[in-house]
Specification:
With 606 residues, this protein is of the alpha+beta class. 16% of the residues lie in helices and 43% in strands. The longest helix is centred in the first third of the chain and has 21 residues, at 6-26. The protein starts with 5 loop residues before the first helix and ends with a strand.
């Protein structure tokens, strides 16, 4: 157990102070980084005898202040008051108060809006003009004579007419409009909905133009349209979206012929995406040294969106080459199949391992954000721990996974969350009796304040893992849990955290020493980042990471090692380029913990 002395707390405050001062010095106007230096004047809205309207108007002004770039450019409270008075008058009209008046006063920098809404204008006459044969079955727009003339409900009526016609008519052109005539003397209005005249047609021939390497029957199946179907612009838009979602099409448009004999021909004008990509990359971390990577990808290897990828990575401690093929829409539109093969060589401080892995996985989207997966994997490895004889393993595993993902961007998420849970039973086919189950849970969350200067994003990652079934040292060393490094606890070397063994001294009277980390059966990690965007191209980050690995399968978030740091982000068109420097807060006596670590790579830390 580590002893948390006052010196540790002093070091913590020192590092945090350095981080904050560095950010403030780099900014041309340090106080601009803090949102409370950028507030608009306070305001109050008073509406006599109508508390509901008063609360609604205040809520709408609050929302406008979060998003309006015009308001943020005003410095004089009088300018803000005049602008928001116009907004309040528009809001009153949208609720049917067409005679409403707003007066504003500014006192000591605070704005008071006095609102006299007047009488609500109500619908005096309502008429819907549409084809006679369709009108008897129309359920209505949700409004009737005597209702208030509210803008939201009026526009909802347009959508109800459009939805009804799309489901019950085959109109070549669907154009629905409305006209509201306000009668001030009567505090009333006449409302008329009108459907523009249009012939009704059905789908004739379907053509696809612009593709050369994609299987045309595959694309036609994605259209979900047939000759003789009722014509609908909404169906065409849905078909184009399905084509784009194949990731084989860069652009999709349609041409509709002139009607003949009650039908129209439709031509889909498509633009293929480039299907091949070559990647080259470099990176650097203090704990693993410099590294290079290269990859090749083909996203349409067989003409139906099958993707094959080959990638190699080389640094001072690990070399690998991996190939993977992905078959989308595997027997079902919501199901994918992937197969992989990988060969790697690792030379860690605590072990050396050579392995070859082959496997396959079927994943199925249960909902838009939820995916289940099941697969099998066979790994042939030779592992040698520090001071031990090498051992050979033939591990067969059956991973089961669940992933929930609501994030907006895979490589630079700014909102949403992810939860990934995997259960992976292992069996050694060499009859060694090695059987264990590896469970891993990773959760992330992202929240961005778009209304605040520099668009700050708060990012959180929590990871926990447990291995059960056998004792720690009976688990292959390259399958145990380790903590520390760029994807774990920044500030510590890769795999530097976790249990160690005592090595007796060969010299009489000398105390035993600690071995390199041996890995554990449990893992706990937590990371918190504050991300900022100073310009479209440059950003920064402040972060704190904590984590540890444990010999017993009981993860804990009490006994963690902590690191803090800051970083710079350069926003490329693909993903952020990351440069981080991190400092360990719990440097350990007798172990070679560096005072800092540096990380350079592509993409956010998580």
């Amino acid at each position: 157990m580590r002893d948390f002395l006052p010196a540790r707390e002093a070091a913590y405050l020192h590092y945090i102070s350095v981080v904050l001062l560095s950010v403030l010095v780099l900014l041309p106007h340090p106080t601009a980084a803090l949102p409370f230096f950028d507030r608009l004047p306070k305001f109050k809205v008073r509406v006599l005898e109508n508390a509901e309207l008063q609360d609604w108007l205040k809520e709408q002004l609050d929302e406008q202040r979060k998003s309006s770039s015009v308001l943020k450019s005003y410095e004089d409270p009088q300018d803000v008051a005049r602008y928001e008075r116009g907004t309040l008058e528009k809001l009153l009209r949208s609720r049917g108060y067409y005679d409403g008046r707003v007066r504003q006063t500014v006192d000591n920098g605070e704005i008071l809006y006095r609102v006299v809404p007047g009488k609500v204008f109500r619908i005096k006459a309502l008429e819907i003009v549409m084809p006679a044969r369709l009108k008897p079955g129309f359920p209505g727009v949700g409004l009737q004579v005597g209702d208030p003339l509210e803008a939201v409900k009026v526009t909802e009526g347009v959508k109800k007419i459009e939805t009804y016609l799309a489901e019950n008519a085959c109109l070549l052109e669907l154009d629905v409009d409305y006209k509201a005539t306000v009668i001030h003397s009567e505090h009333a209005a006449r409302l008329e909905y009108r459907v523009a005249p249009s012939p009704e047609v059905r789908i004739g021939q379907l053509y696809i133009d612009g593709v050369t390497s994609i299987n045309e029957p595959f694309l036609r199946k994605r259209l979900q349209l047939s000759t003789g179907d009722c014509f609908s612009r909404a169906k065409l838009d849905a078909a184009k979206l399905r084509l784009l979602r194949t990731n084989l099409i860069a652009g999709a448009n349609t041409e509709v012929s002139e009607p003949y004999d009650g039908v129209v021909d439709i031509t889909f004008l498509l633009t293929e995406r480039k299907h091949r990509t070559v990647r080259l990359g470099v990176g650097y971390t203090s704990d693993e040294g410099a590294g290079v990577s290269a990859g090749w990808e083909h996203r349409n290897i067989l003409g139906r969106g099958e993707k094959i990828e080959v990638e190699t990575r080389v640094n001072e401690v690990r070399q690998s080459i991996k190939s993977e093929i992905l078959v989308p829409r595997f027997f079902r539109d919501d199901q994918n199949f992937s197969a992989k093969a990988e060969a790697s060589n690792e030379e860690r401080d605590s072990y050396e391992a050579e392995s070859v892995t082959i496997g396959g996985t079927i994943s199925r989207r249960h909902t838009k954000h939820r995916t289940f997966s099941i697969g099998s994997e066979l790994k042939f490895s030779e592992v040698q721990e520090e001071g031990e004889e090498s051992e050979n393993y033939n591990l067969l595993s059956f991973p089961l996974g669940l992933k929930i993902d609501t994030t907006d961007n895979l490589l630079d998420a700014r909102r949403g969350a992810t939860v990934a849970f995997e259960v992976k039973p292992y069996f050694d086919l060499r009859s060694s009796g090695t059987r264990f189950v590896k469970n891993t849970l990773v959760a992330t969350g992202y929240l961005t304040g778009n209304e605040v200067r520099f668009d700050p994003t708060l990012a959180l990652r929590i990871k926990a893992g447990v291995i059960s079934g056998i004792d720690n040292l009976e688990i292959p060393a390259d399958e145990r849990f380790y903590a520390g490094g760029g994807g774990s606890v920044r500030g510590y070397s890769y795999q530097a955290l976790g249990p160690r063994r005592l090595i007796p001294s060969t010299v009489a009277g000398e105390p035993p020493t600690l071995s390199d980390p041996i890995g554990g059966r449990a893992l706990s990690e937590i990371s918190l980042e504050g991300r900022f965007r100073f310009t479209d191209s440059w950003g920064g980050v402040l972060f704190v990471d904590g984590g540890n690995a444990y010999e017993d399968p009981q993860p804990s978030f009490d006994d963690l090692f902590w690191g803090v740091g800051l970083g710079v982000r350069y926003m490329t068109s693909f993903a952020p380029l990351r440069f981080d420097i991190a400092f360990p807060l719990d440097r350990r006596d007798g172990l070679d913990d560096s005072s800092y670590q540096i990380y350079v790579s592509l993409g956010q830390a998580f």
